[in-house]
Amino acid sequence: MTEEKKAEEKKAEEKKAEEKKAEEKKTEEEKTEEEKTKEKNEIENQEENGLLTLPMIPLRGLSIFPNMVLHFDIGREKSINALEKAMIMNQKVFLVTQKDENTDLPTISDFYHVGTVAKIKQMLKLPGDSIRVLVEGVCRGEISEIIFEVPYFRCKVSKVEDIETSDLPAATEALMRSVISSFDEYLSVNPKKAKDVFPSIMTIEQPGRLADIIASHMDIKIDEKQTILETFDIDRRLEILNDLLNREIEILNIEQTISYNVKTQIDKNQREYYLREQLRAIQKELGHDEDPADEVLELMTQLKKLKIPKKISEKVEKEIKRLSKMQPNSAEGTVIRTYIETILALPWNKSSKANIDLLAAEKILDEDHYGLEKVKERVLEYLAVIKLSKTLKGPILCLVGPPGVGKTSIAKSVARATNREFVRMSLGGVRDEAEIRGHRRTYIGAIPGRVIASIKEGGTNNPVFLFDEVDKIGADFKGDPASALLEVLDPEQNKDFMDHYLEIAFDLSKVMFITTANTIDTIPRPLLDRMEVINITGYTEEEKVNIAENYLVPKKVKEHGLTLENIQISEDAIRGLINYYTRESGVRNLEREIANLCRKVARKIVSSDVKSYVITEKNLEDYLGKKHFRYDIIEGVNEVGVTTGLAWTVVGGDTLFIETTAVPGTGQLVLTGQLGDVMQESAKAGLSYIRSVAGKYHIDEEFHTNKDIHIHIPEGATPKDGPSAGVTMATAVISTLTGIPVRKEVAMTGEITLRGKVLPVGGIREKVLAAHRAGIKKILLPRDNERDIEEIPEKVRKDLEFVLISTVDEALEHALAK
Question: Are the CB atoms for 399 and 516 separated by under 8 Å?
Fold first, then answer.
């Protein structure tokens, strides 16, 4: 009885709970209906004011245009909430595009504020809590205010609708036609787009709708679509769209061209492969088939014979094995084969049997070169040290001198004297580091650097290697060859020289390096520090005469098919060639003029019966024409304000006449004759010294205020610079101001200070030879240049009187006539 009562009570309670639940549901539905009605009324009120209050959904990687029907999937919580809210209301939603599609939780700044008001047509729930939505774009919209962001974005949107009209301006009509034409071409070159959309495009009469529909069919970037969406002016929208269409057409045309070229190349490769296989079969039938295995076996045999370091041997062996696995005619196979052959061709263990016999070396140097005693002596000392120490680790010789004095031929003589191969590499104009180190194998057509290539060509690992014109190395964006030479010319580093192409170390420590240069001024200092400089000065006139008589004339006579009976060139003719047809420190142009004489004589012998000709100074002009140069010969009487200075040039010494005059004026110093800055400063220093001692020499102490001093050096077309004319200019000015003439037979050189001291200068040997040639009898030299007199040939020293001076006073004692 008690159990039945309990069961009835339980049923009553369950019934009561169900009634309560139904009542709550009814209340909630009534409340929801009220909210829905309230929100609907609110939207209707907002629409009356030109604003819409709508849920907003940010889209990732997608843009929606008005009049466009599209479906997309949403899965983010905020987007689902906004969609459900839109369905409860009037099925309208505002769609905008995210700036970055990878942003999962966008904020206000993460999406564009111009989008599309869309109507939800259909929605379908998918597995995984995502929803597929079908929408239709209604019109453009721009966010006026974000109402809230949670639980979904809700904003006030200002509608932007295109004005539809049947009477379109002519410009708009033209733009529409241009866009339609471009879109037709776009569809024809884009294989991904169906062409059946074009008829429907043709039926659109409103320009704004036309632009939106075409933009929706284009494969362009999101930001470009957004630009079109944000362009409210219809004509401007059509212009932007037309530009995008033309650009896409151009890109698609290029893509088609590239695709065609690739396909053509593939077909070509297949055809070549087929032909090669046929050729291989034909060669096999003819018995000419070369087995790649035989080639690999031969390379391995050569490698074992070389006896190179184990590490290098393993690397080369690895490359040979790679080659064995490749098609013989493949491009990569050819590169590897060339690399292996280059390594195997290098003289790893092949050396010349160097025999340093100093007596034989001295004889060879004397045979090949006349004079240059100091240079020969230094070269023989270098060879002696090598013989005693049995090693080459020491300074690299750098032969410095003007053109044509025999720098390159000295290097050849050293190679001949030491019984070594001679290898020469010219560095003039080299600007690419790869010229020294080579190119890496990753580049097409890569080759070793010229250092390794020259060693390979020489055939031994201990040649005499000449770097010619090392002072003319350049540098640009491709690298600095001078820096690459630092490793080559450093005895501590070059035993493991690494070429970029080989990528293995090669020992250059056995190579005897010699460099040549015209000047050391342009050689980088770190490179110069690795070399011992040997200066080769120019030849004197006597040396040139001797070289011409004993070397050049016999050589050129033989080269031109003549004999010494056919042509005789007298000594005075040779001196005429040296003085009036050439102006150089070396003998290169002299050799050229002798060859010119031989050609003239050869023609006369062939065209006449006379078989012997004698060339003297008197008939020299008959063969070579008028004299090319002249030398100043000191003659005439002593003059006031004219002094003889001495100058050094790259082709030897020269005399320099300095003329001065004083005219009434305001104390200006006029300098003419194309003088450099240093020379102008020397003139100013000399003038300041003269002002300080004017009373001592009975010079008007006010001359600097009432007289203009003009200093002129003839041959104004030739630039002149340097401090060595300081004492000469000061003497000329003092002569002008005192009226005392200067002795014609006296020449001088030296730098002047404000205290009247005379400092040493360079190029004494060349300057003295020029003075001797000009007929000077007495030369005034700075006292500190006394050591340089010993370098002057004895024959010249005997004809000259040298006076060593320390001050301008001493110079005036010997220079002025009284």
Answer: yes
How is 536-560 classified by DSSP, letter by letter? Answer: -PPPPHHHHHHHIIIIIHHHHHHHT
DSSP for 564-622, written as a single string: TTTEEE-HHHHHHIIIII---SSSHHHHHHHHHHHHHHHHHHHHSS---EEE-SSSHHH
Q: How far apart are CA 129 and CA 744, in angstroms?
A: 115
Reply yes or no: is the peptide bond before residue 526 cis, omega within 30 of 0. Answer: no
- From the list 598, 578, 576, the residue with the least C-alpha distance to 589 is 578
Q: Count how many Cα atoms sit within 13 Å of the Cα of residue 813 in the half-sphere of its side chain.
A: 8
How many CB atoms lie under 10 A from the CB of residue 474? 15
CA distance 324 to 326: 6
Buried residues in 728-743 as b, exposed as e (16+ CB within 10 A): bbbbbbbbbbbebbbb
* H or E element, residue 649: strand 642-649
8 Å CB contact between 647 and 653: yes
Q: For residue 247, what are the contacts with CB-CB under 8 A and spacing of at least 6? A: none
Condensed to tens digits (0 to 9), the pLDDT of residues 61-107 reads 888 899 888 889 898 888 888 888 888 878 899 999 998 888 888 88
Mean pLDDT over all residues of the chain? 83
Alpha helices in 287-429 (DSSP H): 292-306, 310-324, 331-345, 358-368, 373-389, 407-417
Task: With beta carbons less than 8 A apart as the criterion, state whether 651 and 585 touch.
Answer: yes
pLDDT of residue 98: 92
303-309's contacts with Cβ under 8 Å and 24+ in sequence apart are 303/344, 306/344, 306/348, 306/349, 307/348, 307/349, 308/348, 308/349
* Residue 182 to residue 180: CA distance in whole angstroms: 5
Radius of gyration of the chain (CA): 49
Cβ–Cβ under 8 Å, residues 54 and 158: no
pLDDT tens digits, one per residue of 722-773: 888 899 999 999 999 999 999 988 999 999 999 999 999 988 888 888 888 7
Beta carbons within 10 angstroms of residue 240's beta carbon? 17
Q: What amino acid is encoded at 123 in this protein?
A: M
Catalytically active residues, by annotation: 724, 767
Integer Cα distance of 789 and 298 in angstroms? 67
For residue 484, give both structure tokens. Answer: 């690459």
Over the chain (818 residues), the average pLDDT of each successive run of 10 is 66 72 60 52 52 89 88 89 86 91 88 92 86 91 88 89 83 88 87 81 86 87 89 89 89 87 82 75 64 72 80 83 75 81 84 78 82 78 79 75 82 83 84 79 81 86 87 72 80 81 83 86 84 80 84 89 87 86 82 90 87 86 82 73 84 82 89 88 91 86 87 80 89 92 92 92 85 86 90 84 92 87
Between the alpha carbon of residue 571 and those of residues 545, 594, 620, 625, 627, the distances in Å are 7, 13, 12, 19, 17
Q: If residue 772 lies in a helix (H) or strand (E), which one and from where to where? A: helix 764-774
Containing H/E element for 738?
helix 726-738
Diameter over CA atoms, the chain: 169
The HSE-up count of residue 230 (CA atoms within 13 Å, CB side) is 12
Q: Are 484 and 436 in contact (CB under 8 A)?
A: yes
Do β-strands 130-148 and 69-74 pair in parallel, antiparallel, or remain unpaired?
antiparallel
